[in-house]
């Protein structure tokens, strides 16, 4: 079976001044089924470095990363935007919406690569926002939305291209308890409906509790 994600013996170190920091140390795992997988571990354990590898924002010193059966080190530079845009969705702690654009326009941005007629772009963005229960806020700017609503818009943006993998970095980090819980219920529903895999770096125990799988990192290594 082709793994959705395959991380094989990945090592990554950084040099800071005279110090050698081992961010990832021979990390290996596979994700075979669409799921929510949490990457958990204390600050500095390598979670963000690992997510960066999945998007090929960064590359291992040694070892390999494959997504959907494709070795990421073999993707040519010129194809990287296409890989990220068509195969991946991103969700960030700070939402990262464009403040001057409406919710609908923010989601439309993710469709820019497709050269769709404007009306079709608008329709798809509106449908994605409906899916996250934001159909009543299409024309609101981010500043006119609550944190939880902004994160829903960000999830619509991440999903509008129907990616096989959504990479999320502390998506509940800026939300209060109840809003975080609602967002996690939404993610669980969307994961199921769309058969998309979510990989979520987190400190949040609620995310670990709802994930089908938790990968623990400590000092750059897989921990039990
Ligand atoms: N560009 C870099 N240059 C030097 N060191 C780095 C760099 N990026 C990460 N590191 C170091 O690598 C280690 C892993 O960092 P990483 O950001 O992956 O941790 P994290 O688990 O995501 O932490 P947090 O939960 O605080 O976001 C840390 O010790 C960090 O200081």
List keywords for this structure.
membrane, single chain, 33% helix, Rossmann fold, 6-stranded mixed beta sheet, 10 strands, ATP hydrolysis activity, antibiotic resistance, ABC_transporter-like_ATP-bd, ABC_transporter-like_CS, binds adenosine-5'-triphosphate, 224 residues, alpha/beta, 7 helices, 28% strand
| Proportion of residues in helical segments | 25-40%
Write down the Rg.
17 Å
End-to-end gap: 25 Å
Which strands sit side by side, in order, in the main sheet? 6-7-8-3-9-10
Bound small-molecule species: adenosine-5'-triphosphate
Based on DSSP secondary structure assignment, what is the total number of beta strands?
A: 10
Total tally of structural domains: 1
- The proportion of residues in beta strands is 25-35%
Order of helices and strands: EEEHEEHEHHHEHEHEE
Average pLDDT for all residues: 95
Could you say which overall geometry the principal axes of the C-alpha atoms support?
Answer: globular
Give the low-confidence spans. none
The main β sheet shows up as: 6 strands, mixed
Keywords: Antibiotic resistance, ATP-binding, Cell membrane, Membrane, Nucleotide-binding, Transmembrane, Transmembrane helix, Transport
GO cellular component, one term: membrane protein complex
InterPro entries: AAA+_ATPase, ABC_transporter-like_ATP-bd, ABC_transporter-like_CS, ABC_transpr_LolD-like, MacB-like_ATP-bd, P-loop_NTPase
Protein name: ABC transporter ATP-binding protein
